[in-house]
Structure formats: structure tokens, C-alpha cells
Design brief:
Elements (H helix, E strand, L loop, with lengths): L5 E5 L18 H11 L3 E3 L8 H10 L3 E4 L11 H17 L4 E2 L26 H20 L3 E5 L9 H9 L6 E6 H6 L4 H8 L3 E6 L1 E2 L1 H10 L3 H6 L3 E2 L10 H9 L5 E5 L10 H16 L2
Parallel strand pairs: 1-2, 1-10, 2-3, 4-5, 5-6, 6-7, 7-10
Antiparallel strand pairs: 8-9
Helix pairs in contact: 1-11, 3-4, 7-10
Length: 300
């Protein structure tokens, strides 16, 4: 195939950071979505400054030719009841369905260190230590995926640094212990590379069960500092561990990734999601870098 079934989106976390509101605190919702459109993207995910009034949000996006394609959902299956998770999940499904999204994303935050500024991301990552803990987690995720499927949507689970699903081995077990009709992957090359995995091999392995793709690059010198200084995930972000595809400071083999996508049956969104400090990395400038890079590799 070519890329006719692929759409390109961008995440607002490049402009305003949900976990660290001080990053991009000065950037407005209107600036964010206007610059997304100016850079040439047609879809976006949802950030903390997006209005929750459906009519206000829809009008603002339509004026700029943008569509909601996904939103992070904070699963807490390791620390809260399935009932509580279903309630939060269903509320977000209602919103995303209304906005025309076919995917609901997110990762497990219940036992994660991803949002803790002082906990080293590698040494303090969330774990599922027993078969019973794994069963509770995967059974719950499967039930949520079943709810999404019944409404014509896909649960795309995001493997993420600092969480219990970070490595390929953990992702393998997640995939093996959930129904492929209920639970898909939100593939993220940056998080796999950060975790010490080969993102190209990971995509080859999972592309058939991937419902959403995030692309970002890694600055290897900053990643080495994360290891050496035992930095937290948030500190790593603030210091610039992530950058956009197309930035010469990055190291991921994106032509190889796009070859895997091209040879697959993947249909859906590819989303630029490279959280940086907007005061250091101008969001519009970096979005344009990535958009031109994507154009060169896909002609879309």
C-alpha cells in the first residue's frame, strides 16, 4: 500500500504540558490549534486547555480544518476498582464519540512513576509482580476494550516509560493476555527507544495490532544523562530527551519505520507527539520541521 489510508495529526503536549502546566503555560488553546493547522496537520489529540463545551470546541477546530483523533485516558486498574475505571472510561468515550474519534488511548498510571518529579524513571517504574496482579490488570483492560468495541471504537493502550507496560516483554504479555478484538496498541517509537528497545523491530511485531501511532525522536545524549544521573521521567522531558522526527539531534530510524507502515495494513492516524519545553523548542517551528519530514517520507 501507499499512505492513502493514513492521516497526520499532532498532540497539544508540544505546546502545553498536562503533567507540567508550567511548560507552555503562556500558550493559549487558540494559539495551539492555529499553529497545528498552520504547520499542515489535519488532526489533533486533546490537551488540558481544550474547552470541554462540545459546541465551542467543534467550532474552533472546524475553523482550522482539524479533527480530534484520540485522547489520553488514565487507566488505574492497579489501584482502583474496575467500576471506577469503567465510569471514567465511559465518560471519555462519550466525549470522543461525539467528536468523531475512533480511538481512545492512554496508559496505566495507578502504580506508575511517570508523573513523579523526584522518582528515577528506570529504578522506580511501575511493576506487575504476580500472576494475580497481571490477571486483574489485563482482565480489566479487556473489559474496557469490550465496552469501546461495542460502540465502534478501539482501545489503543499506550506503553509508557515509568509504567508497568514499558518494555517489549511487558507489551508481549499484555497482548497475549487480552483479546485482540478488544485491546490494541498505541505504538510509540520514542517510548520503546527510551526503554532500551528497538522501535523498528517493535513496530514489525505489533503493527498488525496497532490502532494508533505516536512518533517522536530521542536525543541520545540526554537519554544517557537520564541513566547516569537517575533522572525522573518529567525531568528527562524538561531536559529535552524527546524531540521531533526530522530533528538532526534525534537518532531513531524513521525511514525504516515508515517502510514497515507502508508494507502493513495500518489505517488510521500517525501523530507527532514530542513533548518539549516550548520556551526552548518553539512548538510551531518544530511542528513544521516534523511535518516537512513526514511529507518527504510519505508524500502526504
Amino acid at each position: 500500500m501507499n499512505f492513502e489510508n493514513i492521516k497526520l495529526g499532532v498532540a497539544p503536549i508540544n505546546w502545553t504540558n498536562d503533567d507540567m502546566p508550567e511548560l507552555g503555560g503562556e500558550n493559549t488553546f487558540e494559539q495551539c490549534i492555529s499553529e497545528m493547522a498552520l504547520a499542515g496537520f489535519t488532526g489533533c489529540e486533546v490537551g488540558n486547555k481544550f474547552p470541554r463545551d462540545i459546541n465551542v470546541l467543534r467550532k474552533a477546530l472546524e475553523l482550522r480544518g482539524l479533527q480530534i483523533c484520540n485522547q489520553w485516558n488514565s487507566y488505574e486498574l492497579t489501584t482502583k476498582s474496575l467500576g471506577e475505571n469503567i465510569k471514567n472510561f465511559t465518560e471519555l468515550l462519550d466525549f470522543l464519540e461525539t467528536m468523531g474519534s475512533k480511538v481512545i488511548g492512554g496508559g496505566e498510571i495507578g502504580n506508575s512513576c511517570q508523573g513523579q518529579m523526584t522518582v528515577p524513571v528506570f529504578e522506580g517504574k511501575g511493576m506487575l509482580n504476580t500472576d494475580e496482579e497481571w490477571k486483574t490488570f489485563t482482565t480489566g483492560l479487556n473489559e474496557l476494550g469490550k465496552i469501546a468495541r461495542a460502540r465502534g471504537m478501539k482501545l489503543a493502550f499506550h506503553h509508557h516509560m515509568g509504567t508497568c507496560i514499558q518494555t517489549i516483554a511487558e507489551t508481549d504479555r499484555l497482548m497475549a493476555e487480552t483479546d485482540p478484538e478488544n485491546v490494541y496498541l498505541n505504538y510509540d517509537c520514542g517510548h520503546f527507544y527510551f526503554a532500551g528497545e528497538d522501535p523498528v523491530e517493535a513496530l514489525k511485531k505489533y503493527v498488525g495490532r496497532t490502532a494508533h501511532i505516536h512518533l517522536k525522536d530521542i536525543r541520545p545524549n540526554v537519554l544517557q544523562r537520564v541513566h547516569d544521573e537517575k533522572l525522573s521521567f518529567l525531568t528527562a522531558v524538561k531536559q529535552g530527551v524527546f524531540t521531533v522526527p526530522g530533528d538532526k539531534e534525534g537518532c531513531i530510524d524513521f525511514p525504516a519505520l515508515f517502510e514497515v507502515i507502508k508494507e502493513s495494513d495500518y489505517q488510521g492516524w500517525i501523530v507527532l507527539e514530542a513533548e518539549q519545553d516550548p520556551a526552548v523548542a518553539n512548538p510551531l517551528e518544530y511542528a513544521i520541521i516534523a511535518r516537512k519530514f513526514f511529507k518527504g517520507l510519505t508524500n502526504i
